[in-house]
Amino acid sequence: MATGMSLTGRGADWPMFRGNPALTGLATGTLATKPTLLWTYKTEGPVKSSPAVLANRVFIGSDDRHIYGIDLPSGKKVWSFKTGGEVESSPLILNGRLYAGSNDGLLYCLDAASGTSIWSYATGDKIPGAPNWHRLGNETRVLVGSYDYQLHCVDAVTGKSNWVYETSNYINGAPAVDAGSAVFGGCDGLLHLVDLKDGKEKKTIEAGAYIAGSVALSAGQAFLGQYENQFLCVNLDAGTNTWTYKNRNFPYVSSPAVTAERVVFGGRDKRLHCVDRKDGRMIWTFATRGNVDSSPVICADRVVVGSSDGRLYMLALEDGKELWSYELGEGITGSPAVANGHIVVGCEDGNVYCFAEKR
Fold this sequence. Notes:
This protein is an all-beta fold. It has one domain: 7 Propeller (Methylamine Dehydrogenase, Chain H). It has strands spanning 26-27, 36-42, 52-54, 57-61, 66-71, 77-82, 92-94, 97-101, 106-111, 117-122, 132-136, 139-145, 150-155, 161-166, 176-178, 181-185, 190-195, 201-206, 216-218, 221-225, 231-235, 240-245, 257-258, 262-266, 271-276, 282-287, 297-299, 302-306, 311-316, 322-327, 337-339, 342-346, 351-356. The strands form eight sheets. Strands 1-27-28-29-30 form a five-stranded mixed sheet, with no helix packed on it. Strands 2-33-32-31 form a four-stranded antiparallel sheet, with no helix packed on it. The protein starts with 25 loop residues before the first strand and ends with a strand. Residues 1-5 have low confidence and may be disordered.
């Protein structure tokens, strides 16, 4: 057991869902054109959680009610921690600690090196979404949404509540954090902007239908899909839509990846969509054989995403051309992590898969 391990991380790590607090889904570094399967790790239930990768360690949850720490080079288990419910939530690794929710309604804080419990915080219902974080003065805080209709802000060190913000329905996704606000949607069909200092509502914006995924934030804009077949770009200051994309009559559950020029997201029309960030104009679509609830990751000029058709895909960002795919056999609803040249993803078959350039 590596209890003395340093978990300070590197620039190419992936310490949380979507890679960063703004949830933009952008990875640094490069990927091999034809990655090789390095290892698989078998859990005892479907893996819907999206992994975090930091300092040669993979962290991920499973429907077998456990959170795992796995050695990145070898795929060997370092530790596991049992919760009281399925762990769909994706871990956040911060200052040597792991934070993840469980469907038992608890937000857990563990020592990331050893997997030992530090504290747990009780919400009123299950936590399927990932936690996020921000710093206020010298205090680090963790944010998480719950099916108790509330966004919770707790002290990262003690687990004590700072504030709770109430909505009128379930919160599925992770809250995005940028420019002093937490921004998230939920089953109430509203985009919520909440002041990080005190949890007070800044504004709510009608989204037209419930929001099952997470929002990405960039330059004062929020990018999000909703359940009545529209993908939106919202100007947060004005509280209005900059553009709306609607291609076919299927919902968008996938969270987007956002660059300076492009927005990429999956749909339940079995497609990955790439649109122009300025106006929402379609640039390309890529057809899979199943729903794309998995959230894509952009790494340099490549896009990595899973599909419920059981395949992991790598596409060219420029034109959506398939560069590589790998058949896992069962559906992929979680999102890949891309870190230090590795791709790590969970699968409904209960396995965690790691791909990289052949060693």
